[in-house]
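WP5 quarterly update. Target: RNA helicase. Source organism: Thermococcus gorgonarius. Length: 403 aa.
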Amino acid sequence: MSFEKLGLSEATLVAVRKKGFSKPTDIQREVIPLLMSGKRDLIGQSQTGTGKTAAFALPIIETVDPKVKSVQAMIITPTRELALQVADEIKSLRGEKRIYVYAIYGGQPIGPQIKALSKGVHVIVGTPGRILDHIRRGTLKLDDVKFFVLDEADRMLDMGFQEDIEAIFKELPEEKKTLMFSATMPMDVLLLAKKYMKDPEIVIVSRDELVPGEVEQEYVEVPRGRKYRVLKEILKEDFYGIIFCQTKRETRELESRLRGDGYQAEALNGDMSQAARERTFRRFKEGRTKILVATDVAARGLDVTGITHVINYSIPMNSEQYIHRIGRTGRMGKKGKAVTLLQPGEFRRFRYIAKQAGVEVRKSKISTDLIPSYRDPFRNEELEREYRQRWGRKKNHRRQSSF
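Structure tokens (predicted):
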């Protein structure tokens, strides 16, 4: 199916062509006709990178009346970075239509935001806390909202935004379309939908789209002392990507080491000011920085075209985190590569994560350099740990001596 068959106007189709979109993704093909024709609420299960922003942005652009100087659509995102990205995407899709799109989030002075809102904004994209702040100040009026979108709902609830979201729901008009997009559907997301949505249409993209099919996935077994050496081997490839670390301290240390060796690397973590994070992300998005060393929280929702590699320098905590990480590459039909570095003792855990994610990760050729003496003691330790968990600690029996 082509975009021409989705019910979009010619002006919007021109904007879509300028973006270089040739045919709709699964989520776009399912969602756009529903929003263009129906009045029902909608729940979409879709990972970042599957084109979901355009799926809700295009119908919003078609519906918004530029002559009405008020907020007609509001999108809530879990992070400031994602709010900026969604706002930029909508701006790039509006074409010649005079729609004013504005992003509001914390970490920035509120004065300029109040001034911008007073001039008349059609589409608001923002984080829950700052949006609620504007509502309570009376600087954000929601009387004319026709679309209300929760983007990455599961992550917002994980980050503790449920009370803010429910407070925003109570301020919205009764007649509107509520859209909820989430990569996973845990119980708290479903309960939120049940409470605030009216008989929603449910759209679930294929598993292949949740787990990027164009990503070549590998793991490398490596002793801790050799991790950095193996990382440098991977960086010899035509590399433009993200290295994921578990802690903020690790991102800073790895950035310093890479820069000392002449690599264009920058850290992105939660300790940085918002202005610094925006500058770092902008340099990476423009290709001036080739290596981003980031924590999961800082990199949540990053949408950058052309990322070639994702490196799990630290093993992900669970399957959702793994899918989120590797979803930064292999986007919109382009090929990518994801490599996970495993220290001795982490293989069994990673195998479980991959199984839960429904993916097959092959062993990298680099792993053949791992000396058996590094691997075997840890494998024996894993087997002993599994034995104790299943059967309990083995008791030592004393042999009684007969006299």
